[in-house]
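Regression test case RT-17, inverse folding.

Input:
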């Protein structure tokens, strides 16, 4: 029917929590600490839409994050204006790639990364 949520395991919970809430502006729905797993779980929303579960676990294994590595390639966020979003993220200290144009849709987009180098795409409406 539709994607329910995306789960992300981070290496440093406080840094990733700050990134997703303060830098990207996602809203916190709930935050819990699960003692038996030594794990935080943070449910995040874009507007009112439940979207991302951010987890922490002790010593998670590293995962390749190159765009061509096997597995999840990137997360893409839809934005109204990629120029404005890119400038906003640069002002918040992110290293953003140059804006590109999708050769099939002719829409503008760019990439940056979260604190664990997970590629993030911002794609214009």
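Golden output:
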């Amino acid at each position: 029917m539709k994607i329910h949520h995306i789960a992300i395991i981070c290496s440093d919970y406080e840094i990733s929590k700050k990134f997703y809430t303060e830098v990207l502006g996602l809203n916190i729905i709930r935050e819990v600490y699960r003692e038996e797993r030594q794990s935080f779980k943070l449910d995040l929303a874009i507007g009112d839409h439940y979207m991302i579960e951010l987890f922490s676990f002790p010593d998670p294994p590293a995962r390749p994050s190159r765009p061509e590595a096997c597995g999840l390639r990137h997360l893409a966020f839809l934005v109204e204006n990629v120029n404005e979003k890119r400038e906003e993220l640069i002002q918040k200290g992110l290293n953003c790639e140059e804006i590109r144009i999708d050769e099939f849709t002719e829409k503008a987009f760019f990439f940056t990364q979260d604190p664990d180098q997970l590629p993030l795409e911002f794609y214009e409406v």
